[in-house]
Write a structure and sequence with these properties.
GO terms for molecular function: ATP binding. By secondary structure, this protein is α/β, with parallel strands linked by helices. Helix content is 64%, strand content 12%. The protein has a 6-stranded mixed sheet with strand order 6-9-10-3-11-12, with helices on both faces. A 4-stranded antiparallel sheet has the order 2-1-4-5, covered by helices on one side. Bound molecules: adenosine-5'-triphosphate.
């Protein structure tokens, strides 16, 4: 996990060296103070004290100045690692793990865990070093003094183990619930209009409070733990001070140690106690890190898609073949043994009732999922052998909701293009799809701002923008997943015409319920419950394929109901 987190080792080494120096300087504090308090007027004692404070100030500043950047660089690197992983992980992972829930692994978990981890890496060994040298110095005064420091060690270890386990559990709970609350809010904020349409604000307020209350419960558990830590920690600290005082005073009275050694020992026992607490804190922070990173570790272990550049790049043509392809989402069968051919440069419609496997067919072609049986070939080559980047670069995908990120119209149209394009190129593409007529009415033109999901545009405008984006991309195969389903009849007709006029020679696959489209396409695939029931053009299927006739009847009645 640490290896995968890409920690900034050079920063950590520098901060470690600085912290080590800080501890080394701190080791001289008790003897310097003891020298001053013994009433000595020796110039050397004063000079040592002055040197100590100058050095102390320098190393303290350097320690603070270097440790923070090391933490922030680590947090930034880890955020990048997780985001990269989220982008490359296989889609199956997201079927079981809500991606919105994972957002907080980047915004929260990673930042805190990497900060703790850097703190541990930088501070743990120097603290141990400090303790060893301090104990050796004390033992040189008197062995009983050293033993007095160790008397409570078993209690301290028991305390650390017990609290550490508790810490792990509570932190895991907190971060899981932060994820839950983030996911809840992200989903609701995206669909505010749905909430308003159903005037469901009151219920959503309650749902939000419930998610927030879960986090509150987890935080209260942390609070309880902190109370125990403070209480037990203070008790142990007090017991330690009493033991030290008793041992010191007895030995001083006996004349076994000098007053100077007693002062130095007393100061050492204080700083040693802090060092012990720090070691316990480091241990607890490690347990906290473990608790925080459970979800991140699971994500980082998830299987990734193939390297986009690895595989064959010699795609010859765009004919697509499904040969006895089967696919299930977990136990749920989506496609069973389907075989068909999609000819190059032609338009194929995929139709079927809800849940018949249309979108799954497109997903297999894009290799969002791999089939469990059979083969998908593109240009005669199994898709699984093709470089993922090359394959996806050949395929354009226009989805139901016209997916658009926020930004300017220019950014939306050029999204995903790797080469620089001029405004003139964009306008040329927009003329082709008819989006230019819309653009001209907007004063800011290509600088017009687009809301997330393109909600600041009408459905037809959004689809025209996406078609312009696809035209610019220039892929040879274009998949359309119900491109007109969200549009009224006039806009649907306009988008349909644009598809045929803009991409006349491309290999087009259109998932649709739109009857008028079926008569225009070259081939229709009829799916029913994941099985291919028919394949042919409108004339070939009409009156001959039962499933096709049933679908026509359903689409007809839907159309009439809509009118
Ligand atoms: N991510 C998923 N996880 C689990 N099951 C899924 C997933 N996506 C689809 N399914 C299931 O697989 C089957 C085929 O779904 P698919 O989305 O391919 O159908 P569709 O024909 O495109 O449906 P629609 O017309 O409603 O969009 C359905 O039973 C569906 O419930």
């Amino acid at each position: 996990m640490i290896r995968k987190m890409r920690l900034p080792w050079h920063w950590i080494v520098i901060a470690f060296a600085c912290n080590f120096l800080y501890n080394k300087v701190m080791l001289t504090l008790p003897t310097v103070t003891a020298g001053l308090m013994s009433g000595s007027t020796d110039n050397k004692v004063l000079w040592d004290a002055l040197m100590f404070y100058v050095l102390f100030t320098i190393v303290l500043c350097a320690d603070v100045a270097l440790r923070s950047p090391a933490r922030h660089v680590a947090a930034r690197n880890v955020r990048r690692v997780i985001w990269k992983k989220m982008l490359h992980v296989r889609m199956e992972y997201y079927d079981q793990n809500d991606p919105s829930n994972l957002m907080s692994t980047i915004t929260n978990d990673a930042t805190l865990a990497s900060e703790y981890l850097v703190g541990f890496l930088v501070g743990f060994l120097p603290t141990i070093y400090y303790m060893v040298v301090a104990l050796r110095t004390i033992s040189s005064y008197n062995i009983w003094l050293m033993l007095s420091v160790f008397l409570l060690l078993p209690v301290k270890i028991l305390y650390a183990v017990f609290i550490g386990k508790w810490q792990y559990k509570t932190q895991f709970g907190v971060f899981q619930r932060i994820g839950g609350l983030t996911a809840y809010l992200a989903e609701r904020v995206r669909n505010l209009t749905l909430i308003k349409t159903y005037t469901n604000e009151e219920n959503e307020l309650e749902n939000g409070e419930r998610a927030s209350h879960h986090l509150f419960d987890a935080n209260m558990k942390v609070n309880k733990l902190n109370c125990v830590i403070t209480g037990l920690g203070t008790l142990i600290g007090m017991a330690q001070t009493i033991i030290v005082m008793v041992f010191g005073v007895v030995l001083l009275k006996k004349g076994t140690i000098t007053i100077q050694q007693w002062v130095a020992f007393y100061m050492f026992s204080g700083t040693l106690s802090t060092a012990f607490s720090n070691v316990i804190d480091y241990w607890m922070q490690l347990k906290t890190i473990q608790g925080i990173l459970v979800r991140t570790a699971k994500l980082l272990r998830a299987p990734e898609e193939d390297d986009p550049g690895k595989g064959r790049t010699d795609i010859q043509g765009t004919e697509i073949c499904f040969e006895q392809v089967s696919f299930s989402y977990g136990d749920k069968k989506a496609l069973t043994d389907i075989s068909f051919k999609i000819p190059e440069g032609k338009t194929t419609a995929v139709i079927g009732l809800c849940g018949s496997g249309k979108s799954t067919t497109l997903s297999l072609l894009e290799r969002f999922y791999e089939p469990q049986g059979g083969t998908v070939t593109v240009g005669g080559i199994p898709a699984s052998q093709l470089a993922l980047g090359g394959l996806r670069g050949q395929i354009g995908y226009v989805q139901q909701g016209a997916d658009i990120f926020s930004g300017t119209v220019r950014e939306a149209i050029t999204y995903g293009l790797h080469d620089a394009v001029s405004d003139a190129d964009i306008w040329k593409a927009a003329e082709k799809t008819g989006f230019a007529d819309i653009l001209r009415k907007w004063d800011a033109g290509l600088d017009t701002l687009v809301a997330p999901g393109g909600t600041s545009m009408s459905g037809g405008q959004r689809q025209k923008l996406v078609l312009t984006r696809e035209f610019m991309r220039g892929a040879d195969i274009i998949l359309f997943d119900e491109p007109t389903s969200a549009l009224d009849a006039a806009a649907a007709q306009m988008v349909q015409d644009t598809i045929f006029e803009t991409f006349p020679d491309k290999t087009k696959i259109i998932v649709t319920h739109d009857l008028s489209l079926l008569e225009r396409v070259d081939q229709i695939l009829v799916l029913h419950n994941g099985v291919l029931e028919g394949c042919g053009n409108y004339r070939e299927l009409y009156g001959k394929c039962e499933a096709f006739m049933e679908l026509i009847a359903v689409c007809q009645s839907e159309k009439e109901a809509a009118q």
